[in-house]
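I wish you would study the pair of lines that follows with an eye to the fold:

===
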Amino acid sequence: MSASEGLAWVGLGSNVDGPAANVRAAFEALEGIERTRCWARSSLYASTPMGPPDQPLYVNAVAGLATELTPHELLRALHAIERQAGRERDGVRWGPRRLDLDLLALDARTVADDELTLPHPGAGQRAF
């Protein structure tokens, strides 16, 4: 990692339309983010949904990224990957998702605004 890069952790999840394949494709899509490289990939894990109980289990993973992007730039890049995968952000909160990418942390930075909270407030509640 260079001096200009920050260390980011991203949570990946999917529970519809081939969740394991969606998460694997998301790992590949992370490689395409400008001024960012994926240096770590966790195994895939099955977990119980946090939202409505009548939905399939999630397949989750975590990626470690080295990035020169700001937290907000990285968040926008993650949202773009979600959109490319067919994610629509007007659905049920914590409902079924083809792809969910959460920016969990970026170095020791703290952010609290309408667009982003870092570290991610739900990071400690994850079962993976």
